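HOLO CASE FILE
Compound: flavin mononucleotide
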Amino acid sequence: MTHILHLDSSPRGDRSLSRALTKQFIHLWKQIHPNATVTYRDLGHYPVSPIDEAWIAAAFSPSTELSPSLEAALMISDELIDELLAADLLIFGIPMYNYSVPANFKAYIDQIVRVGRTFIIGSDGYEGLVHGKRALVITTRGGSYAGSSLDFQEPYLRAVFEFIGITDLTFIHAENLSMGAEERQFAIAAAHQAIQQTIEAWQSSDSLSNLSYW
Ligand SMILES: Cc1cc2nc3c(=O)[nH]c(=O)nc-3n(C[C@H](O)[C@H](O)[C@H](O)COP(=O)(O)O)c2cc1C
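Model generated. Tokens follow.
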């Protein structure tokens, strides 16, 4: 059985395309895997706070030596990390904002990238601790940036997810959404198709047939 972490980061509601696309994925996935369970995290409407001085002090102190106030500073981080570790499959909807991710998603990243919990500093350097996850990141963009030097979103997300050990990453970019009705319709149809194809590819991939949760 798959356990999914479904996360949206658009501050928009019904107008958001990234929300519509992650929802479509979940709908299609549940048709094939009716027993799949989902934890939903809505960063767009319920952002997590940016890390602060207490968070940094707490994160870099031995967990056995934390005062109650330092323990409290890590509460949200612990909750988000537990949620991430509990999932097999991560479905993230992330609009492009100013060439990168929305601030709410950056705040999320800062909360979950934590020494001793999602990475360690070993004798060979940094080592990610988040293993056995597959991630689908669906981005929405007004323009077209995939593969260009102005795409600070996918390379950043790849780097930070790989840093904590999440290496099985698929990206679907819905682009040119602000380039007129025709371009937008084309992009939406292409994104729907890419979602369908991703599910089909995962279903039939050799590596996945070896995973017990599939
Ligand atoms: C504050 C802001 C910044 C944006 N920056 C970019 C950008 O740098 N590049 C781009 O292609 N689109 C940009 N857009 C357009 C959004 O990526 C696009 O509208 C997308 O559909 C938003 O996702 P959503 O539909 O899930 O809300 C920006 C939109 C907003 C509101």
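CASE NOTES: The domain at 3-209 is CATH 3.40.50.360 (Rossmann fold). The mean pLDDT is 95.
CLOSED: yes
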